[in-house]
Amino acid sequence: MKITKLTTYRLPPRWMFLKIETDEGIVGWGEPVIEGRARSVEAAVHEFSDYLIGQDPARINDLWQVMYRGGFYRGGAILMSAIAGIDQALWDIKGKALGVPVYQLLGGLVRDNIKAYSWVGGDRPAEVIEGIRKLRAIGFDTFKLNGCEELGIIDNSRKIDAAVNTVAQIREAFGNQIEFGLDFHGRVHAPMAKVLIKELEPYRPLFIEEPVLAEQAEYYPRLAAQTHLPIAAGERMYSRFEFKRVLDAGGLAILQPDLSHAGGITECVKIASMAEAYDVALAPHCPLGPLALAACLHVDFVSRNAVFQEQSMGIHYNKGAELLDYVVNKEDFSMSNGHFAPLNKPGLGVEINEQLVIERSQQATDWRNPLWRYPDGSVAEW
Ligand SMILES: O=C(O)[C@H](O)[C@@H](O)[C@@H](O)[C@H](O)CO
Ligand SMILES: [Mg+2]
């Protein structure tokens, strides 16, 4: 079999799908994207196609190594997201060619279902209680919300109290009947992370995500030494070579590689296994579309240390399209009691409505993340 064509579709809300065609008529789909830099990743995908066209898609490991090591400059968000989407599509092709779901190619199921969690509250946590109530009604009991709004490197008690108050209201309303992660979203700088985490401890969040930016990862073990709360990170780390450093340094209780940013299924299965060796949980990051989610689920179903899965149904970013809008087999993503079942169709197990993808790709806008500024006009982390 030979790869014959790569086609990318930038799509609302902020996604990109990749279709890889072969000379035997088998087609694979993947989701290479960096939110806010879709065109950069698209260019990277097409740069890789110079080599990929004419190659045997079955040789995923060799193609991955060529894409990674074949360039003198490697790694980083753009290139690793391009590799990720191509890798997902290659696994989709292999599964379809052999008539089995990707998880079978990776050794089979290690569990029967995986817990999903859902975002509430938006960029600036609001209507959180109502949001949780609605999602509980459809079976969710685990949620994630932004831990705070902008927070200065050194900030005041009112900001800390506002963040704590949101969390106190959640516990007041639901007690220990629900769990929630707090995503500091890289908005908090090291001095305030220590303060904020300490004030949040009494409310027992399930985890604290990105308490500081990935480029400040040396603080993860220091923050972990001061708190019993599990610390999670990984969405802005892009290969085993980045994850090995945080695993060696310690401090992370949960790794959150993104299947569309960290080199795809081939790389994230290895990252999952590295985490297991350090007794660290896996919770793949996934605020994206159905192909990214499917790739996450296949890794979850073969990784014993997978604990819960992020998914974007109802996420505040999905303006203009919802998680399953482009999927024909929506029922395969159905959840029961807040848990996903395995995707059992061949390949990734996602049937894409290509006609709709082509049509909607005409309306794709260039999503950009908000640019936040402090009152003094300096740039704040979003
Ligand atoms: O945990 C999450 O889902 C992420 O922090 C998410 O909010 C960001 O990755 C966002 O998609 C960036 O544009
Ligand atoms: Mg996050």
Automatic annotation (TrEMBL):
SMART domains to which the protein is assigned, alphabetical: MR_MLE
Key words, A-Z: Lyase, Magnesium, Metal-binding
GO MF annotations in UniProt: galactonate dehydratase activity; magnesium ion binding
Active site: 185 (proton donor/acceptor), 285 (proton donor/acceptor)
Cofactors named for this entry: Mg(2+)
Every Mandelate racemase/muconate lactonizing enzyme C-terminal domain range: 125-230
Residue numbers marked as site, Transition state stabilizer: 310
SUPFAM superfamilies: Enolase C-terminal domain-like, Enolase N-terminal domain-like
Enzyme Commission number: 4.2.1.6
InterPro entries for this protein: DgoD-like (IPR034593), Enolase-like_C_sf (IPR036849), Enolase-like_N (IPR029017), Enolase_C-like (IPR029065), Galactonate_deHydtase (IPR023592), Mandel_Rmase/mucon_lact_enz_CS (IPR018110), Mandelate_racemase_C (IPR013342), Mandelate_racemase_N_dom (IPR013341)
Catalysed reaction, written as an equation: D-galactonate = 2-dehydro-3-deoxy-D-galactonate + H2O
CDD domains in the record: D-galactonate_dehydratase (cd03325)
Cofactor note: Binds 1 Mg(2+) ion per subunit.
Keyword tRNA processing listed: no
Lineage: superkingdom: Bacteria
Pathway: Carbohydrate acid metabolism; D-galactonate degradation; D-glyceraldehyde 3-phosphate and pyruvate from D-galactonate: step 1/3
PANTHER family for the chain: D-GALACTONATE DEHYDRATASE, D-GALACTONATE DEHYDRATASE-RELATED
More details: Reaction proceeds via an anti dehydration.
UniProt-recorded name of the protein: D-galactonate dehydratase
